[in-house]
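Quick question, first post here. What does this chain look like in 3D?
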Amino acid sequence: MLLINDLARHTAALRPELDAAISRVLDRGWFVHGPELTAFEQQFAAFTSSSLCAGVANGTDALEIALRATGIGPGRKVATVANAGMYSTAAILACGALPVYIDLEPGSVRINLQQLADAAPGVDAIVATHLYGRMLPMADVLTAAHGKPIIEDCAQAHGAALEGKPAGSWGALGCFSFYPTKNLGALGDGGAIVTSDPEIDARVRALRQYGWKSAKYHAIEPHGRNSRLDELQAAILAVKLPHLPAWNQRRRDIATAFDGAPRGLEDVVHLCVRQLANRDQILQRLRAHGIGAEIHYPIPDYRQPAIRAQIGDRDPLPETERACAEVLTLPCFPEMTAQEVDETRRLLAESL
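> Answer (accepted):
Ran it through. Tokens below.
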């Protein structure tokens, strides 16, 4: 079976560099908030054209801490989309706030900017999700936001850039996940928050460690927690970061081979997704031929049973419902062979 993302192949290509990084951390004996994290935070801040970066435990923590750092709490409302796997919804609800779901552009998987502009006066912040690795038109998002703080969800957009500005550098904060399958993935879990606002960064750093702000063991910032990117993962990510542009280009080339549509730097193809009216039949055919296609994501957030009591009944959003019924994810990772790409392309073409 051809996997969506073969992590064994991905890791094998870097094994000597990774072994050296891991050994360095083990020999030093410093495993949390040490020199490896400091070095990676500086490197990743520069990579995202941000002044500051704070490592955290995972991407959902990054979203929650970023929301809290912009004042989101009980009684607040946050605009987001409902077709992105419930990650922003989970973070919003963890803050005690309520999600305000915005529908998608017709026939698209991206937020409807006119509906966002209409909703912006009634919300306190906006989560702008660069879904599947393709950046939103951020200049237009900023206009639609009417001055409300924007938290960029860059969990799938490592290295994407629009008009020369990387994902994460457009909003008040940018939130990244380093889950192993991400374009820049750890060998475990991890996340980061980037910003160019020193005051926001200070709140983020306090929130990620018990609310400590001026001194250790002195909890000043409310709602602090334990959310750390450890030294081993920081060292591993620092090894991988220089390879990221080439990996992203390979993803673009594979996606173009599938549908003939060239991708620009704004799209790093974290997931190679097509919208197909007969999605389920094509999914079954690909799997029958050993192509591990998947669905990202099949259920709108507002229809998740676990959160209905918190968010109440919500009217279905027609374009969101359509996207969740049509999206199909094809295998796409840098180590795919030309033969695997050709076979996937052939089977897809025959199924359409």
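The first helix runs from residue 7 to 12.
Residues 36 and 235 are 6 Å apart (CA to CA).
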